[in-house]
Design goal:
homotetramer, alpha+beta, Thiol Ester Dehydrase, Chain A, five-stranded antiparallel beta sheet, 3 helices
């Protein structure tokens, strides 16, 4: 692991356009689409904080979602840009919690806010410890400003 | 509306099989797939309590999701049956809250529990009153045993 | 394998309702949703012809999609029932082709027709032979009337 | 419409990362996910050729998919970048056909190739003419090199 040169970041952003398939017949983004965006925010957070989630899984571990909460404030629409802001709220030996905001990068308006709790599992779906070096790396990011 | 002969039901169930597309590379159902299942539970609840959500939207109204909370207890897998149990927790003039359990219909094991809050909007996305007859019909179901 | 008592079926049907999440802002079912339905037709075809696709994968094999063709004739809408009809067109030592129709079970109207080609892969994603007993079982279904 | 300063492009590219939700239990991208990517390629093609598809729909028209064909050559995986290349094959008074390649932007390997046919519909789902100025704009792009 060679991530010592990475500057830890508390909050990471990723921006993309709303896809047509993400809308529903209300003419706005379907509420389940945001869940996929939060996950993409989480992926980006890990990439910018040292190592990707793909590398985490390559160790035979995964971070399963144990709870999800999301509040919908304003609807996003096809074609517009959305920015997912993700930060690490808490990290424990076997669990983590991320917080999110999905915003309009132009107006700053908030589409949704939410959090997700995760539990570390091994490939047999048994609860497992987050490896020490990963936990240290992520704790540093959570503590940064 | 001819729903007087419908016996109101507090809790409604719908059962279907897990689709392959609903899994992810963890080998289990992706956490966003459950959100779609809850919605299907809600649709079934309305069908069995007098009128479908399609009819509700035909009035120029929609029930947008304003909050979603879901706890993941056990993972569902491809091909197995899952049962979504949905009940109406609360109904107000402009808002509703549904509660859910997704269970294994064979073992009774709980996969997820959750709730969703909804706000009634008109086609211009303005907050609107739930029409009196719909509210009466749904209140009766919420109060039933 | 104890499938000798299964009567092989050339064509198998599965019926379900359109989910809200499967629509898009055109007010109709998004074209990618049908792909998931075809897959569900394929799953049902296998279940009714002896053994499930889950059992096939339990052998360390998978049937990856190598080509997909779908023609959209009429749009399906939220809440209505759709029936997927699936039959096995061809089976070779390492490849299979399924054919499909998605219809309205009430009017008989055709929503889409299509086919999918599959190649048998092992867990290392190398092309593999379809095991003899599976191929025999499926060939019998393809040849039935 | 002020698109005269836009240089028409025969082929347009858009690059993004594979999302975790786009994988399935084979450990690779689910075959339906590519359909959504092709659509995103199409959206990008329009954006870079003068006006967005959102603007097209704002005219009370839509381009419904009438046929889709896709060949899967190699599997894409979570976290990697994929590039969708889209070009306009043909444009007629009421129909269009787009061609696609989904490639690995680093190695140039091809994941999938495909085409989609579209028919112009009005808001009542009646076949309609593509407006003259849109057709002229798009024909110019198709003819460019």
């Amino acid at each position: 692991m060679n991530s010592t040169h990475i500057k830890p970041k508390k909050t990471v952003e990723v921006t993309f356009r709303v896809r047509y398939a993400e809308t529903d017949q209300m003419g706005i983004v379907h509420h389940a689409s945001y869940i996929v965006w939060l996950e993409e925010g989480r992926s980006q957070w890990m990439r910018e904080n040292g190592r990707s989630y793909a590398e985490f899984e390559a160790n035979g571990l995964r971070l399963a979602v144990s709870e999800l909460n999301i509040r919908y404030k304003q609807a996003a629409c096809y074609d517009q840009h959305v920015t997912v802001r993700c930060h690490l709220d808490e990290i424990h030996s076997r669990q983590m919690q991320f917080g999110y905001e999905v915003i309009d990068p132009i107006t700053g308006d908030i589409f949704t806010t939410g959090y997700s709790k995760h539990i570390c599992l091994d490939i047999h779906n048994k609860v497992a410890r987050i490896p020490t070096e990963w936990r240290a790396m992520w704790s540093q990011a959570a503590a940064s400003t």
